Amino acid sequence: MGKPKHYRPPGKKKEGNAARYVTRSQAIKILQVSLSDFRKLCIHKGVFPREPKKKVKGNHHTYYHLKDVMYILHDPLLEKFREIRAYQRKIKKAKAKTNDELAKLLLSRAPSYRLDMVIRDRIEMDFQPGGCIEPGEGYDKYCACCCTYIKYCTLLCEIVVF
């Protein structure tokens, strides 16, 4: 009868580096985003490429840990990026049909994303409660995160007020 359509030989992609690491192009396919959106997500979420012990696909690829990709996959920011991209297609379609009033209306209602939750998550990940911070080790990073969060919140308040 032959092999089934989705036949996987035993021991493939279940354990080892092939299961733990994915290339950048594989990560983009998993997340279903463009390269520019993937870069933005990685910067916002603090995900960096890693060096596996054995590079399965070759030495010239960029590898990401599968847990990091899954961390991005379940993020609400990813949904916002998809929503923004769909909205940009609507605007482009209205401009192509020379419907300027609709294009202006859509531009005024364009969705945006907020980074306050991302900043809060980054602070919580770096400084867990009950954790001991060595003197001088993490204070500069903590102060930088707090200042960024405060500046971001005041900027949002100014935008809302005016």
- From the spread of the alpha carbons, the general shape counts as flat
Order of helices and strands: HEHHEHHHHH
What percentage of residues falls in helices of 4 or more residues?
55-70%
Indicate the low-confidence ranges by residue numbers. none
Q: What is the terminal-to-terminal distance?
A: 71 Å
Q: Work out the number of β strands.
A: 2
Beta-strand percentage range: under 5%
Radius of gyration: 21 Å
Mean pLDDT comes to: 79
Count of folded domains: 3
Largest beta-sheet characterization: 2 strands, antiparallel
Global structural class: mainly alpha
If helices are DSSP runs of H or I spanning 4 or more residues, what is the number of helices?
8
Largest beta sheet: what is the strand line-up?
1-2
GO molecular function: RNA binding
Organism: Gossypium darwinii (Darwin's cotton)
Subcellular location: Nucleus
GO biological process, one term: maturation of LSU-rRNA from tricistronic rRNA transcript (SSU-rRNA, 5.8S rRNA, LSU-rRNA)
Q: What does the model show?
A:
This is Pescadillo homolog. Keywords: Coiled coil. One of its GO terms (biological process) is maturation of LSU-rRNA from tricistronic rRNA transcript (SSU-rRNA, 5.8S rRNA, LSU-rRNA). Helix content is 59%, strand content 4%. The model has no long low-confidence stretch (mean pLDDT 79). It is mainly α. The chain starts with 16 loop residues before the first helix and ends with a helix. It folds into three domains: 64 residues, no CATH class; 38 residues; 49 residues. Helix 5 packs antiparallel against helix 6 and helix 7 packs antiparallel against helix 8. 6% of the residues are buried. It contains eight helices and two strands. A two-stranded antiparallel ribbon has the order 1-2.
